[in-house]
Specification:
Radius of gyration: 21 Å
Distance between the termini: 33 Å
Order of helices and strands: HHHHHHHHHHHHH
Shape: globular
Number of strands: 0
Largest sheet: none
Helix content: 55-70%
Structural class: mainly alpha
Number of domains: 3
Number of helices: 13
Strand content: under 5%
């Protein structure tokens, strides 16, 4: 069930009416969100119905431990368990075929997760890392945590949202004004225009043709296709993000901005602050600031290289992404 499909919007309409019918009561409201999350995932595969609850429950228990215990060693063990669990899930969902097919096992593995869990794992880690750093308040409600960590609008293409923030928003009594509703429909409509009118049109009528058979085109046409691909990529990704933000707004939930006109940036540093903002912020807040040696002259630059390298390898385990 892709976020821009007709099935998705039928699903959103059903969730919308059910959610607001019980919006005055916290537990039924959270139950509707959780049911919607897992129904959305189950459309990609029934195995998500045990995988996501199991992983989310472990993070919830880790969170309880981080809220209760003060011993530094125990806290490091707990947050280490969460990091290991989520990174294993991330690598398994994105790169398992690469690791198995490049090993010496002689096996050929071509199955991939139909719904990638990259955005889920990054979102899940915000909760335990924030609690470990004491940057946010946790929740003692398993239902609230499960509803927030697997919030369905963010699962496919983000934006990556701090779970602690989602928990607070889901706990508060929602209110949908005319202005907010208008913003939601505007974002969804804008996302659909970006996706179908620009991104898909460029891909189907120009970019894919040149990339599939480049020898049939001149150098100027190939160069133009490269630039057209950058436009296609931006409008496709930002279109999905707009749809996600609009969907969440229909439920009274505000998600962070993920793109801020990145191609108008004056330099590469500004570009990375405006392109896939939630991912860039995640790398900055949870990876770069966690690396040692920031007070020395050399380490900040080395840490920046490490951060960008890992960010590239997240997209794919190849030298091109690493470079």
């Amino acid at each position: 069930m892709q976020a821009a499909s007709g099935t998705y919007f039928v699903f959103v309409v059903a969730v919308f009416f059910l959610y607001w019918a019980v919006s005055a009561r916290r537990l039924p409201r959270l139950a509707v969100v959780l049911l919607a999350n897992y129904f959305f995932c189950a459309r990609f595969g029934l195995f998500y119905l045990w995988l996501l609850p199991a992983c989310s429950t472990v993070d919830y228990l880790v969170g309880l431990g981080l809220m209760r215990f003060r011993a530094p060693v125990l806290r490091r063990v707990l947050v280490g368990l969460s990091i290991l669990l989520n990174l294993s899930l991330l690598v398994g969902s994105r790169h398992m075929p690469w690791f198995l097919n490049h090993g010496n096992s002689g096996l050929t593995w071509d199955w991939i997760f139909p719904l990638g869990l990259s955005f889920y794992t990054f979102q899940a880690l915000t909760y335990t890392l924030d609690l470990y750093r004491r940057d946010a308040e946790g929740t003692s409600s398993l239902l609230a945590h499960l509803s927030a960590v697997s919030f369905f609008p963010t699962l496919q293409a983000g934006p990556i949202t701090r779970v602690a923030d989602l928990v607070k928003q889901l706990a508060a009594t929602p209110f949908l004004s005319r202005e907010t509703g208008g913003q939601a429909f505007f974002l969804i409509g804008l996302g659909l225009l970006k996706k179908f009118l620009i991104a898909d049109y460029l891909a189907d009528n120009f970019v894919n043709r040149v990339f599939d058979t480049p020898k049939l085109y001149s150098g100027a046409e190939a160069l133009l296709a490269v630039y057209a691909f950058s436009v296609q990529l931006y409008y496709d990704f930002s279109g999905y993000t707009d749809i996600a933000r609009g969907t969440a707004l229909l439920l009274g939930i505000r998600l962070p901005i993920n793109f801020d006109r990145p191609y108008l940036s004056a330099n590469p540093a500004e570009f990375w602050r405006r392109w896939h903002v939630s991912f860039s912020n995640w790398l900055r807040d949870y990876l770069y600031f966690s690396l040692p040696g920031k007070r020395t002259k050399v380490m900040p630059y080395l840490n920046l290289v490490i951060t960008m390298l890992l960010g590239g390898l997240w997209h794919g385990v190849t030298w091109t992404f690493a470079i």
